[in-house]
């Protein structure tokens, strides 16, 4: 634990807080003494956090969620955008309109709407930190990952643009971009096919959501003069999106 007195007491808003990386981040921020709100479609959050129901792909939901957090906890000091879905493993020509729209709306629009909702207040106060959860898929492309990679490349570009937009305002912008993380992500991607999902991590030790949460806290607790712009966090057994060493 960090338990930095400058960090304790901050108000943090975490999207996707009901499960996976988002839940681990929310739990870790609570342990560090933050006042945490968890924004999730299911309206669920770890014990001790303020649960806020909302769809990150709907701008009105996000604006209402941020307003509620301001009223019940205070202004948002730290925003962590962790909500996301995998999309199906398809070639570009096999992706229909609904699939493209669904994944883009949550993974890219959702980050944009959350960032847009909190950054003006941070700029006005002269402080704040936005940490977007990206992916190695925002730096590389792999077979069947066309839509998902497109959304994560969008997050990478948005993150870099926000750093320019907020330069000199006291607001910091970071991204944590993990490789393989064992969550329910693969089960969703393969529509509940446990064998295919387990095969993603077979023969290696993937990252855990707690590893990503550690990285988020590291970013958020740097001294004011320092900022982690982009952190690519990989399992030791993974060198690139499709290059991993697996034990037989």
Any overview of this molecule?
With 248 residues, the chain is an alpha/beta fold. It has a single domain (11-232), classed as NAD(P)-binding Rossmann-like Domain (Rossmann fold, 3-Layer(aba) Sandwich), CATH 3.40.50.720. It contains seven helices and nine strands. The chain has a seven-stranded parallel sheet with strand order 3-2-1-4-5-6-7, sandwiched between helices. The protein has a two-stranded antiparallel sheet with strand order 8-9. α3 links the parallel β4 and β5 (128-133). α1 packs across α7 (209-220), α2 runs parallel beside α3 and α3 (97-125) packs parallel to α4 (146-165). The model has no long low-confidence stretch (mean pLDDT 93).
Helix- and strand-based class? alpha/beta
The first-level CATH class name: Alpha Beta
Instruction: Tell the overall outline.
Output: globular
Distance N to C terminus? 36 Å
Helix content: 25-40%
What is the CATH architecture descriptor?
Answer: 3-Layer(aba) Sandwich
